[in-house]
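Dear support,

I submitted the protein below through the web form. The confirmation email said the job was done, but the results page showed an empty box. After a refresh the structure appeared. I'm attaching both so you can tell me whether what I see now is the final result or a partial one.
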Amino acid sequence: MNRISAALAAVPLALTLLSAAPPAEASSAGGACADPAVLERITASFEYNAKNVLKQPVSIAEIAHMQRSRFEPRTQYASSVEREYCGAKAALTDGSVRQLWYLIEQPWGFAGTGRGVEYCLAGLDPWKIHGAHCRSVR
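What the results page shows now:
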């Protein structure tokens, strides 16, 4: 049984709650909010942080209901970075479902290529890195 199958088997109630609506497509969710590469990056990063920072044996089993909450386009004078603010529901392997907020910035990274992704899971930011209630990535 691979890692994803084991995680999905652990949270049948949470997955039932999340699967009540049809999965969002990238176009209906708005831009990059439903991009599988972005969601995988969030999932992998959270798995590492849960284990090494939060010291909790939990990971993200599924991300659903992705929606763009705000879009800030690149402009000639104000900002050379495009920002897409997104929200979703995340089912965790402990059976809970939490609100997920994330920000996708592009161009980003080395020499202005690629994307930067910041995320916050409601209730799992004990040091308020993203402000109270994940405010900076909403």
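Response: this is the final, complete result; the empty box was a page-load delay. Residues 58 and 94 are 6 Å apart (CA to CA).
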